[in-house]
Structures are given as C-alpha cells and as structure tokens.
Specification:
It is a single chain. This protein is α+β, with helices and mostly antiparallel strands and 458 residues long. Helix content is 33%, strand content 19%. It has 15 helices and 17 strands. The strands form four sheets. Strands 12-14-13-16-17-15 form a six-stranded antiparallel β-sheet. The chain has a five-stranded antiparallel β-sheet with strand order 5-6-10-8-9. It is globular, with a radius of gyration of 22 Å. It binds flavin-adenine dinucleotide.
Length: 458
C-alpha cells in the first residue's frame, strides 16, 4: 500500500503566496478544501493515495514555466496531473509536493480537418479530440477506456494505448510535436505540425511515456486520419486459452490486418455474458473478439480463421459492452488490482492460464482480459475492500504477475506505465546498463529530481 509515508520535502511558509502570484489566487487550491480528488488517481481502490501541499491550475505554458522556475529555486516537487485516470499512481502525490493540474490548458489551438491534424492544449480530453475528428469524417484511433476524462497530456505522458492500437499504434504514432516545459523552467518545442522530422534526437519520443518525470507537456500537435468506411466484428468462444491462442495466431497468419484483437478469459466471459449483445452463444470459455475495418474480404478471412464457432454481433453494441468489462469485474468484490503486462503474442495463452494459477496460489480470484493482438493482458486480482488480508494477498499476486511477464520475455507494463506502483521494477526487466541509461537521462532532464520524484525509476 502506498501512502504519503515517505519523507516530505519541506515546503516553505510562503508557498501559497508564491503560487497565487504565479497563477492567480483563484487557481490555487488547498487539498483540504475541495482538492480531495487530486490525492489519488484510479489506483485508489488499491490503496494508493497521497496528500499534495497545494494544487495549482496554470493557464498557459508561460505560467507552467514560471512554476517550474519557482519549484527549482525552492526545491519543491511538481507532480503533473491530467484527468487522473491513470492506473499506476503516476499522478498521485505520495510524497507531497505541488500538483500541476493541466485542466485549464484546454484550448483547441488549431484544427485543420482537410490536412488531418489538430493542435491542442494538454488539458483537452481524449474524447474531445475523438469527437471533433468524428464530426469531420476523421478518426483519432487512440482509444483508451477512460477517454471521457483522460487528457491529451496524460495520454502523451503514458504513451496510451487501447484496443485499436493493434493496427494503428499507441499515442506515439499520433503525436508529431509537443511543447513542454523543461527544468529549470524553459518552454521548448519538439516537432510540430510537420509529419516527419529527423533533424534532432528523438526527444519527442522520449517525452512520450515519460510519466511527468522529464518535463511538463503543455500542448501537442496530433495526426488524424479519414474514418474507415467499413466496420464489422467477428467473435468466437473457445474451450480454453490454448485453443483461443491458436485461433488468434490463425487470424494473424491469414494475412488480414484486423483493427483490434481482444480477449476475455473464461472467468470474465462467464461474469459478463448476461449483458452481452444479442446473438452471443450460450457457451463458457475463452472469448476472442476481432474488429475489422478494411472490408468484406478481410472479414470473411477472419471468419475462416476463427472456424465454425465464429459469430458476428453488432459492432457498436459489442464495443459498448466490451468497455463495461472492467467495471463489471470490480463489482464482484469492490476492489481489484489490475496489471497491464504484455508478452509475445505466442505466450498469451500461458500468461492467461498462469494469471489464474497465481490467483489460486495466493487465495484470491485471478482473471484477465485485454488486447490479445498485442499480447497485452489486464491480469486482475479481486479483493474485498473490507478485508485487508485479502487485499495484501492480491498485492502479492500482482507482484508475481510482473515476474511472470519478465519470465515470458515480456514487459511489466504494456499500457499504464510504471508510476509508483511498479517503481523499482525496471531492474527486473532490463540489465544494469539499460537501467543506468534511464537514470542518466532522468538526471540530464531533471538534475534536482523534482519532477514527479519516486515514480518510474525509483
Ligand atoms: C476505465 C479505464 C480504462 C482505461 N483504459 C486504458 C486503455 O485502454 N489503455 C491505456 O493505455 N490506458 C487505459 N487507462 C489508463 C489511463 O486512462 C491512461 O493512462 C491515460 O493516458 C491517463 O491520462 P490522464 O490524463 O488521466 O493522466 P493522469 O492519470 O492524470 O496522469 C498519468 C501520468 O501522466 C503524467 N501527466 C499527466 N499530464 C501530464 C502533462 N501534461 N505533462 C507531463 N506529464 C503529465 C502524470 O504525472 C502521471 O504520471 C484506463 C483507465 C481507466 C480508469
């Protein structure tokens, strides 16, 4: 359990006065007065909370820069915050410090639908970009499950994924430029509206996925694309993960490029089957969902690859149902620890079976669902919030899943990032030199370790 028990960095008595001077009195919030939601992100069900010394809402990149200059002069940690939907405790102020909430950086700076591009503030929500794209015959294919609340800055800082990144790639593929504030408090742009730029080092790529530890993103140039005209879903239920895994490999071998390949293990399928869209068979087992947006011929190839068990529900109903899975699983016990490991796709079935076995070993219900095409599992352990012993066992099971990912040649995080939950685990995945390279980069960008300290590398 992570709480604010670490050593707090001292914040001087003039804190409130200084912050009000920089961003205006109405944009500084005391954590005790309405600032409660800034004490955690979506990992609070796992007990990850903190208490910031203050919350500020800057209104421009220049104000963010002034905040960082002040923080660097006063040795005060800054924790960037987007929509607070993170699943790694990345925006949680576990050691105190000042939360820099980007919600006021919500301007659409420029939108050129005919050129398939948009320039937005970091605080614009993912859904806003998706909606603007849709209204103009375009799509922004990055589709995380919390799009209504998550922000573009948070999506960049976590290199967010979602079902359709199987075909279209994670956030990195859709960002052509960012403006960010770097220590000790200067605004810098990397990339821009141009779709290609190999002039410098890929610092843009470094900032994507850096979880607020290298710089604070204030705005971004994003790519869009024309909306595919075709949409179909093909599903099949298999007796077990092994046969489901084989079917997924058959889909890949068929030569089609599905937009998404998802799965639910047998426990999850059984739990949510009652609310499934019409046409869902009355069968228990490992569910494979394939989304096709490239036409009838590819859809037919997927039907052939999935075999006689294939069925075709309405794609809109199916995706709405798929989005409800996480909440349905939480409802079983009230608490869940959900990991986001990724393994090579041919190891998926073993990782699915092992997740359940780990749950049994620690006496908690273990199950998984996720982005099968990317070998990305949401390995989940359920517990009752009233049972601290069960919660502790779920925590041990979640740790064992990280070991499993590494053993199968995968990664401890395919989606949510390291945050505070998995801080310190990089050395389990990489050799000493690779970890050292990360530390060297962190020191070069943030020599005083004031940008989201204790996250990612600790
Ligand atoms: C129901 C649900 C479904 C989800 N589905 C998916 C999914 O399909 N795929 C997926 O990848 N994730 C998913 N997530 C996780 C989460 O939505 C993503 O990680 C998202 O990108 C976080 O964005 P946010 O704005 O909420 O960031 P926050 O949670 O506020 O912050 C996340 C991290 O980014 C940093 N940060 C935020 N803004 C900035 C900024 N402007 N500059 C620098 N650093 C910043 C924070 O310090 C923190 O380290 C899901 C979460 C929920 C609750």
């Amino acid at each position: 359990m992570h709480t604010q028990d670490g050593p707090r960095l001292s914040v001087g008595p003039g804190l409130g006065r200084d912050l009000r001077r920089i961003v205006g009195a109405e944009h500084v919030m005391d954590p005790g007065f309405g600032g409660g939601r800034y004490c955690h992100d979506m990992t609070d069900r796992g007990g990850v909370t903190g208490r910031p010394d203050a919350i500020v809402m800057p209104g421009s990149a220049d104000e963010v820069a002034a905040l960082m200059r002040w923080a660097y002069a006063q040795d005060v940690p800054l924790i960037a915050r987007g929509g607070g939907t993170g699943y790694a405790g990345g925006a949680t102020p576990v050691g105190g410090g000042v939360i820099v909430s980007m919600e006021r950086l919500d301007a659409i700076h420029q939108f050129d639908p005919l050129l398939w591009r948009i320039h937005v503030g970091a605080g614009v929500t993912t859904r806003t970009v998706q909606r603007l794209a849709l209204e103009n015959g375009l799509t922004f294919p990055v589709d995380p499950g919390a799009a209504e609340e998550s922000q573009i800055g948070g999506n960049i800082a976590t290199n967010v994924g979602g079902p359709h990144c199987f075909k279209y790639g994670t956030m990195r593929a859709w960002v052509t430029g960012v403006r960010a504030v770097l220590a000790p408090g200067e605004v810098a742009s990397f990339g821009g509206a141009q779709r290609k730029d190999v002039a410098g080092y890929d610092i843009l790529g470094l900032l994507v996925g850096s979880e607020g530890t290298l710089g604070l993103v204030t705005d971004a140039w994003l790519k869009l694309m024309p909306r595919p005209a075709y949409s179909a879903a093909v599903c099949a239920v298999f007796p077990d993960a092994a046969s489901g895994g084989e079917a997924i490999e058959s889909v890949l071998a068929s030569g089609t490029v599905p937009a998404a390949i998802e799965y639910l293990d047998d426990i999850v399928t059984r739990t949510v089957r009652g609310t499934a869209p019409p046409g869902f068979p009355d069968a228990d087992g490992f569910l494979v969902i394939v989304d096709v947006d490239s036409g009838e011929a590819d859809r037919n190839a997927v039907v052939d690859a999935l075999g006689p068990a294939a069925f075709a529900p309405d794609p809109r109903q199916l995706w709405r149902w798929r989005e409800s899975v996480g909440h349905a699983m939480i409802a079983l016990k009230g608490g869940k620890l959900s990991e986001d490991i990724a393994v090579p796709v041919d190891q998926l079935a073993e990782a699915v079976d092992e997740t359940q076995a780990i749950g049994r070993r620690f006496g908690v219900l273990g199950c998984s669902w996720g982005h099968a095409g990317d070998g990305n599992l949401h390995s989940t352990f359920l517990f009752s919030a009233e049972d601290p012993d069960e919660a502790a066992r779920a925590g041990l099971a979640a740790e064992a899943v990280l070991e499993l990912a590494v053993r199968l040649g995968g990664t401890i995080s395919g989606e949510h990032g390291v945050g505070v939950l998995k801080a310190g685990y990089l050395s389990k995945q990489w050799d000493t030199t690779a970890v050292l390279a990360h530390r060297t980069l962190k020191h070069a960008f943030d020599p005083k370790n004031l940008l989201n300290p204790g996250k990612k590398l600790a």
